[in-house]
């Protein structure tokens, strides 16, 4: 794999780009802003002291004479002070230095100073920055009297030197931060990449049908949560794989037993001289085996139709009380044969919205489950009741379902442990899917001595509301 396409390289580059972008923003916006603030601060300082010093100069011209004015003004303003006179005879105003705080130095470098010329022209205070040679200056100029102009020029060398120092250190820090971000990003991303590769190997193992090795990552972050989800999936798939193998074995047994039985009875009926009573007994047993095969085939067919979405479910009002009566009548003989009592309890008509044939199919699965998984002497009650959601309940006082198995009773191919477990493990799974297709739900509550399976369906009034909505469209 190309190293640049790895997660570590991509995260490192992303982190480096983020750091470089942040430093670029600082370098392009913060540093120039700092420079402007320093320059403006210097100009503000000169503008603050300039009027007072000009007033001292005016007073000096009125008689309070101070021959060292420009020197004192320079010390007060911390800037070079130059006093100009304006030559009015020239075609445009020109300046001639009368006094310069830099004693003994030439004033030629400031005699064409643009800030001072603007002040002489506009007769108003002016300020600005300019460069002389390799050095920048902040300047304030203001007119005095009789065409005189007072110029304050302060070097920005120290202030801008601090800015340049910041820029230099920022560049050094930026390069160091980029290198650190690349190293730390790649190191951290490599750790995550190893964990991701571990999840990838685990996914390959699970895809290959190897469910024995757990997916272990104890960290509390998102990858740890993903690893724990993978492990839950592994356990779930392992359970389904075991259930599938058990179902195949069980289905083979369920098919082989009646087929062998039918073959044996057919051979006996063909080869032996049987009396009428024995022949009738054989035929009755054969009929039971055929019904057993038919139930298994029906379960498999219903399951395939549900998966393919070809099982049609009606949505019409019907009474769950009628379904409950039909179930008790249908299974009463089977319950007595197994030494169990089957009782009916009704609480109103319990009008529901759904498919009465599918509801009867669900009820059969619930009653068969109660009669098959409880010992002789158990009382089974089929109950229908009204409520916010009409309910069909099948309750028994058998040993109950272990709490560890309660969440699996509706799983496909699941068959409970113990001597009472039988069947294909499809009845309750099909019942739940049929309930959901009717916009209902199938619930179970169990404790030692009491187990209740409950089918809840929408009330019949929902059918009237649906029709009313359709009628208004």
State the gist of this model:
Helix content is 57%, strand content 17%. It contains 11 helices and 12 strands.
What does this protein structure show overall?
The protein is an alpha+beta fold. The protein has helices at 7-61, 69-77, 114-122, 157-207, 222-271, 276-308, 320-337, 356-372, 403-406, 427-437, 461-472, and strands at 80-87, 94-100, 126-132, 135-143, 148-155, 316-319, 341-347, 351-354, 379-385, 391-396, 441-447, 450-456. It has three domains: 7-162, PAS domain (Beta-Lactamase, 2-Layer Sandwich), CATH 3.30.450.20; 222-308, Orthogonal Bundle (Helix Hairpins); 316-465, Heat Shock Protein 90, CATH 3.30.565. It is built from eleven helices and twelve strands. A hairpin with a 4-residue loop joins β4 and β5 (148-155). α1 (7-61) runs antiparallel to α4, α7 runs parallel beside α8 and α8 packs antiparallel against α10 (427-437). It is rod-shaped.
What key attributes describe this structure?
alpha+beta; Beta-Lactamase; Helix Hairpins; Heat Shock Protein 90; 5-stranded mixed sheet; disordered C terminus
Average pLDDT, to the nearest integer?
Answer: 79
Shape: rod-shaped
Q: Major sheet: size, sense and barrel closure?
A: 5 strands, antiparallel
SSE arrangement, N to C: HHEEHEEEHHHEHEEHEEHHEEH
Name of the CATH superfamily of the largest domain? PAS domain
Supply the CATH architecture of the largest domain: 2-Layer Sandwich
Helical percent range?
Answer: 55-70%
SS element count, helices: 11
Strand content: 15-25%
How many domains would you count in the coordinates?
3
Radius of gyration: 49 Å
**How many β-strand runs?**
12
For the largest beta sheet, what order do the strands appear in spatially? 2-1-5-4-3
Q: Which CATH class of the largest domain applies here?
A: Alpha Beta
CATH topology name of the largest domain, in short, is: Beta-Lactamase
- How many angstroms separate the termini? 59 Å
Low-confidence stretches: 468-473
Class of secondary structure makeup: alpha+beta
